[in-house]
Amino acid sequence: MSSFQSTKRVIDAALEIPIVPGWTNLGYRIRRNLWAWGDPASGSMSGSWALVTGGTSGIGRAGAEGLARAGAGVVITGRDPERAQAVAGEIARATGSEVIGLGADLSHLDQAAGLAKEFMGRLDHVDVVVHNAGAMFAGYEEHDGIERTQVLHVLSPFLLTRRLSPLIPNSTRSRVVFMSSGGMYSHGLDVAKLQAGPAGYRGATAYSRAKRAQVALAHRFAERLPGRAVHAMHPGWVDTPALHESLPRFEKTLRPLLRRPEEGADTLIWLATAAAAGTTSGLFWLDRRPRREAMVIGAGSRAEEEALWDWCERITSAY
Ligand SMILES: NC(=O)c1ccc[n+]([C@@H]2O[C@H](COP(=O)([O-])OP(=O)(O)OC[C@H]3O[C@@H](n4cnc5c(N)ncnc54)[C@H](OP(=O)(O)O)[C@@H]3O)[C@@H](O)[C@H]2O)c1
């Protein structure tokens, strides 16, 4: 490696140490210039199909647009089918690609199973699956006997990946991406706590635990889907409706430094399209580079990850 390349690596890594600059738009813009990032060539994804859950808004919408611009056909999902179809039409008109909008509330497992069925009824392959739908819930609510944050971020993505996996070609061009969060650094994987009841519920804690579980699922699927690339990532801090609603004070304080949705979606698009992102699997990414998975708190053991897999399998097999 040249000393110039080494210097760039040092600058990139240094942005992660105090967290704040690296996760803001400053981190993104410095890295984009530092590494002279380009976007996927128009038409480079022609013939591919991508599923982007939560593609009606924010990061997911920007990611869906980026994939459609690269020539992929894209299926986006949101809770309201009419809204999803309307947004799909807007993306199709802006990009010239085929875009389908489907409705499913992924905090309910029967709807996740219904989405998988509907997808398989329409398409015979899917090259890119992006588990992006997400939300932080202020109040405790159980769906299917499980707290809904875990259904939305953990159980539904597990079910969708399992059901759609026969449609994902055994090719390094095939990608599965979990949109996790830097919030996962605050909790290690603990499957018992994913099943915690209402006592002491905090939305931010449930969200962080779910986002940690997504990283663990990326590890497990990387082993169980050989030949295909499975990634987890975090987008940095991004100016989206979810951030306004769930963390209004944080959003107000940091507003000038928040990334635009296109900036938050950059790594999603890169992980889904770049040849280099097909050569590794099971890592955690920010700004087109693998990042450490634990800071002060440990990530969780392999045995705990296997327990997560068994839990997901047991719960979702009923749908
Ligand atoms: N913004 C950030 O700073 C940040 C940081 C780290 C991670 N993330 C993650 O990035 C992902 C996208 O979030 P965003 O910030 O872009 O928020 P957003 O603009 O509010 O988008 C959230 C998307 O998820 C969908 N969604 C929400 N609840 C759903 C449900 N129950 N079932 C199905 N779809 C649902 C929404 O669709 P409908 O409203 O049409 O149903 C929407 O398309 C989330 O997983 C979030 O945790 C965001």
Structural class call reads alpha/beta
Radius of gyration: 18 Å
Note poorly predicted spans.
none
| Backbone shape | globular
CATH architecture of the largest domain: 3-Layer(aba) Sandwich
What's the N-to-C terminus distance? 51 Å
Order of helices and strands: HHHEHEHEHEEEHEHHEHHHHEEH
Share in helix: 40-55%
How would you state the average pLDDT, rounded?
95
Q: What is the strand arrangement across the widest sheet?
A: 3-2-1-4-7-8-9-10
What percentage of the residues does DSSP assign to strands (E)? Answer: 5-15%
CATH superfamily of the largest domain: NAD(P)-binding Rossmann-like Domain
Q: Tally the helices.
A: 14
Largest sheet: 8 strands, mixed
Which fold name fills CATH's third level, the topology of the largest domain?
Rossmann fold
What binds here, in terms of ligands, is: NADP nicotinamide-adenine-dinucleotide phosphate
| Main CATH class of the largest domain | Alpha Beta
Total tally of structural domains: 2
The counted number of beta strands is 10
